[in-house]
Records
---
Amino acid sequence: IEATGRYADRFGGQLVLVTGAGSGIGRATAFAFAEAGARVIAVDRDAEGASRTAEMSRLIGAPEAWAEMVDVSDEQAMEKLAEKVATEYGVVDVLVNNAGIGLSGRFLDTTPEDWRKVLDVNLWGVIHGCRLFGRQMAERGQGGHIVNTTSAAAYQPSRALPAYSTSKAAVLMLSECLRAELAGQGIGVTAICPGFVNTNITSTARFAGVDAAEEKRRQQRSARLYGLRNYPPEKVADAILRAVVRNEAVVPVTPEARGAYLLS
Ligand code: NAI
């Protein structure tokens, strides 16, 4: 972990909740807020990953950090989390809806079950987070910020990722609508759109209806691509903190995401 000190104490005393904080971009984001003095709630369905993030966040500089094992697509579990957070930790100042899963496969090969899984986590998870924590922010009346991790896939059509891209496009639009709705209450909303970032998501993504030879070619292609880009999650985390500080609306991160955004 590199301590840049760029946002030293900028988030001192603030309460930040990050979902999907057990690895990748979410973990790097929790660390960046910890380094900036925030109290951190690391939420993930992977209990071990979340605990490790919370433990490390304390070492990095978070005055307090907690791990919560929650599946963001589970409405009741999210409601329980929102209640617990409000009672035990306080109202969240910054919410980062970042948990997400990948799914590759042509549209005609994907099943309704595939679609449900991706939309349940990538879209419904964000809806639950925005609804529950956004309401607490609005009721408190002291502003706040919501960051939703979407993707360059949200505005860049691809034959390989129809379900994933659709889920991310929905989150992009939700973020923009919510930004308009909550602006009057001093609550900012940002859609973060990374391109290719080196994390687990590529290795854990499921592939629908793609034959083994094609899958192997795809993996070789993406290994070249990821190898070339080599974009670290810490840089996405940095863009997230900057977006909160500057109250930015849509933030394409990574060079190819910026390029595709300009063309979209
Ligand atoms: P990752 O796989 O390293 O991290 C995702 C985390 O979310 C994991 O810790 C996982 O356990 C957690 N998670 C998954 N489903 C969950 C659920 N239902 N409830 C709670 N936690 C859950 O992947 P990465 O790359 O850090 O992904 C973070 C976000 O960034 C995702 O929304 C992803 O779609 C998005 N993204 C990633 C890009 C990349 O190239 N890595 C590019 C564009 C967007």
---
Amino acid sequence: MADIYIPDRDRYTKMPYQRCGRSGLKLPLISLGIWHNFGDNSDFGVQAQMLRTAFDLGITHFDAANNYGPPPWSAEINLGKHLKNDFSAHRDELLISTKAGYFGWEGPYGDWGSRKYLMASLDRSLKNLGLDYVDIFYHHRASDDDPIEETMGALADIVRQGKALYVGISNYNPVQAVKAEAELNKHHMHCLICQPRYSMLYRNPEKAGLFETLDELGIGSISYSPLERGMLTSKYLSGKFDKPLTDQQQAQLKIAVQLNEIAKTRGQSLSQMALCYNLRKVTSVLIGASRPEQITENAGALKNLAFEEEELAVIENLIG
Ligand code: NDP
């Protein structure tokens, strides 16, 4: 007999939801991405358990992109199957996002930011996901070559066509974000959200003033790789690795070991503290996982979100 998923009735008591910029949309403080561990090389049953675990914890937002796999596109196709199998009665409770902007297919129309690429890619994504619309469609990276007027015009038309409810930008710096918002405004549209890479060990967006700019523009934010792809978890703390660490990873690990000691004093794991640190700046943290237990552990971050001034001073001294 098929395994029928019945979501936890208490799921909405477990997760705070935060307004995304000045929009009407609230995001869960923790969101789940499918960049890794949802391609055809990963166990489909484990994928299902991760999505179920997330939803049971009140994680209502799943983030995809056209190129996620491997192979590219397969993570979207797998997510589509899971949505059909487990979440078809819950579509209105979910935020599904996808993106285009990195390599999608060969030739001049399968990359960067042309209207041709974005429109065609989203059509493929919707087929893959088995959805009529996504909640958020992102331009995945800023393009120096393509006119921002065209890229943002395409996003505005995508919303008008009903294929996305909101649009966002990813990997845009503050200047590019200002330009994107100005272009969308010409179409009486607003950029919902910006998705930068941001972690305790990668603070470039913070140092560049991205979060202040987004606040001024009323744009929300969701940080990707908030656990620095596992460096800010127990994964490397054991000292056992599948392959030798790079020089940069070795330097990061030294800091992670010290951060872990601070996390212990807060009664948290390193990953939990890393997420709390991010949430001082962003609307939602976008985690990845390979096992359901990781998601459960990470959601434990919500029990102790606040930092003492002295704690922050010690942390900032360490991470620079
Ligand atoms: P993280 O920094 O959260 O790293 C996730 C990895 O950390 C997991 O795959 C797992 O590694 C490890 N991990 C997580 N929790 C734990 C835990 N509690 N204990 C031990 N290990 C843990 O994020 P990702 O880099 O995976 O990115 C998250 C999402 O962000 C993506 O899925 C995607 O949606 C988005 N993203 C967006 C990009 C963009 O350009 N817009 C680029 C990159 C990501 P392991 O698998 O080895 O177990």
